[in-house]
Protein backbone atom coordinates (compact mmCIF):
# COMPACT_ATOMS: atom_id res chain seq x y z
CA UNK A 1 0.00 0.00 0.00
CA UNK A 2 2.75 2.45 0.89
CA UNK A 3 4.48 1.80 -2.46
CA UNK A 4 1.27 2.52 -4.29
CA UNK A 5 0.58 5.68 -2.29
CA UNK A 6 4.05 7.08 -3.09
CA UNK A 7 3.41 6.91 -6.80
CA UNK A 8 2.27 10.19 -8.22
CA UNK A 9 0.63 10.80 -11.49
CA UNK A 10 2.02 13.73 -13.45
CA UNK A 11 -0.34 16.64 -13.55
CA UNK A 12 0.05 19.06 -16.40
CA UNK A 13 0.28 22.62 -15.22
CA UNK A 14 0.09 26.00 -16.91
CA UNK A 15 3.76 25.71 -17.92
CA UNK A 16 3.00 22.73 -20.17
CA UNK A 17 0.30 24.64 -22.02
CA UNK A 18 2.60 27.64 -22.49
CA UNK A 19 5.28 25.42 -24.04
CA UNK A 20 2.82 24.20 -26.69
CA UNK A 21 1.55 27.70 -27.41
CA UNK A 22 5.12 28.98 -27.75
CA UNK A 23 6.04 26.07 -30.03
CA UNK A 24 3.01 26.59 -32.26
CA UNK A 25 3.60 30.36 -32.48
CA UNK A 26 7.25 29.99 -33.46
CA UNK A 27 6.39 27.23 -35.93
CA UNK A 28 3.77 29.43 -37.59
CA UNK A 29 6.24 32.34 -37.65
CA UNK A 30 8.98 30.26 -39.29
CA UNK A 31 6.48 28.88 -41.81
CA UNK A 32 5.24 32.38 -42.67
CA UNK A 33 8.78 33.67 -43.19
CA UNK A 34 9.59 30.80 -45.55
CA UNK A 35 6.27 31.15 -47.35
CA UNK A 36 6.71 34.90 -47.75
CA UNK A 37 10.18 34.47 -49.27
CA UNK A 38 8.78 31.97 -51.75
CA UNK A 39 5.81 34.15 -52.61
CA UNK A 40 8.04 37.13 -53.37
CA UNK A 41 10.15 35.10 -55.81
CA UNK A 42 7.08 33.66 -57.54
CA UNK A 43 5.35 37.06 -57.70
CA UNK A 44 8.33 39.02 -59.10
CA UNK A 45 7.06 39.01 -62.72
CA UNK A 46 3.70 40.43 -61.60
CA UNK A 47 5.41 42.92 -59.30
CA UNK A 48 7.56 44.27 -62.11
CA UNK A 49 4.56 44.44 -64.47
CA UNK A 50 2.70 46.41 -61.79
CA UNK A 51 5.46 49.02 -61.46
CA UNK A 52 5.98 49.02 -65.24
CA UNK A 53 9.63 47.93 -65.29
CA UNK A 54 11.39 45.26 -67.31
CA UNK A 55 13.65 43.58 -64.71
CA UNK A 56 16.05 42.28 -67.37
CA UNK A 57 16.59 45.64 -69.09
CA UNK A 58 20.06 47.18 -68.76
CA UNK A 59 20.37 49.15 -65.55
CA UNK A 60 17.20 47.66 -64.06
CA UNK A 61 18.51 44.27 -62.96
CA UNK A 62 19.86 45.86 -59.77
CA UNK A 63 16.29 46.40 -58.61
CA UNK A 64 15.55 42.73 -59.22
CA UNK A 65 18.56 41.65 -57.19
CA UNK A 66 17.75 44.00 -54.32
CA UNK A 67 14.18 42.69 -54.17
CA UNK A 68 15.38 39.11 -53.98
CA UNK A 69 18.34 39.60 -51.65
CA UNK A 70 16.89 42.44 -49.58
CA UNK A 71 14.51 40.12 -47.75
CA UNK A 72 17.33 37.73 -46.89
CA UNK A 73 19.62 40.57 -45.83
CA UNK A 74 17.05 42.13 -43.53
CA UNK A 75 16.16 38.75 -42.05
CA UNK A 76 19.81 37.88 -41.45
CA UNK A 77 20.52 41.20 -39.73
CA UNK A 78 17.32 41.46 -37.70
CA UNK A 79 17.09 37.92 -36.35
CA UNK A 80 20.08 38.13 -33.98
CA UNK A 81 19.39 41.77 -33.11
CA UNK A 82 15.74 41.20 -32.30
CA UNK A 83 16.62 37.97 -30.51
CA UNK A 84 18.76 39.95 -28.09
CA UNK A 85 16.06 42.60 -27.69
CA UNK A 86 13.59 39.78 -26.98
CA UNK A 87 15.88 38.57 -24.20
CA UNK A 88 15.91 42.08 -22.73
CA UNK A 89 12.27 43.15 -23.14
CA UNK A 90 10.32 39.91 -23.40
CA UNK A 91 10.11 37.42 -26.24
CA UNK A 92 6.32 37.36 -26.47
CA UNK A 93 6.06 41.15 -26.59
CA UNK A 94 8.69 41.41 -29.34
CA UNK A 95 7.24 38.47 -31.28
CA UNK A 96 3.79 40.11 -31.29
CA UNK A 97 5.33 43.46 -32.27
CA UNK A 98 7.11 41.70 -35.14
CA UNK A 99 3.83 40.29 -36.44
CA UNK A 100 2.26 43.77 -36.27
CA UNK A 101 5.19 45.33 -38.16
CA UNK A 102 5.10 42.53 -40.75
CA UNK A 103 1.37 43.06 -41.31
CA UNK A 104 1.73 46.83 -41.60
CA UNK A 105 4.67 46.56 -43.99
CA UNK A 106 2.82 44.04 -46.15
CA UNK A 107 -0.12 46.42 -46.45
CA UNK A 108 2.20 49.34 -47.29
CA UNK A 109 3.90 47.29 -50.01
CA UNK A 110 0.59 46.43 -51.62
CA UNK A 111 -0.26 50.15 -51.89
CA UNK A 112 2.78 51.19 -53.95
CA UNK A 113 1.84 54.64 -55.31
CA UNK A 114 4.78 54.87 -57.74
CA UNK A 115 5.77 53.30 -61.08
CA UNK A 116 9.16 52.84 -62.66
CA UNK A 117 12.34 53.15 -60.59
CA UNK A 118 10.52 55.07 -57.84
CA UNK A 119 8.10 52.16 -57.45
CA UNK A 120 11.01 49.73 -57.23
CA UNK A 121 12.69 51.83 -54.54
CA UNK A 122 9.40 51.97 -52.59
CA UNK A 123 9.33 48.17 -52.54
CA UNK A 124 13.02 47.79 -51.68
CA UNK A 125 13.02 50.28 -48.81
What would the average pLDDT be, to the nearest integer? 83
List segments where confidence is low: pLDDT < 50 over at least 5 consecutive residues. none
- Order of helical and strand elements: HHHHH
Put simply, the count of helices is 5
Helix content, binned percent: over 70%
Largest sheet: none
C-alpha Rg (nearest Å): 22 Å
Total beta strand runs:
0
Helix/strand/pairing category: mainly alpha
**How many domains, as an integer?**
1
> What portion of residues belong to β-strands?
under 5%
Shape: elongated
The N- and C-terminal alpha carbons lie at a distance of: 71 Å
Kindly summarize this structure in a few lines:
This protein is an all-alpha fold and 125 residues long.
What does this structure look like?
With 125 residues, the protein is mainly α. The chain has one domain (30-124). The chain contains five helices and no strands. The protein has helices at 2-6, 14-50, 61-89, 91-110, 117-124. The protein starts with a helix and ends with a helix.
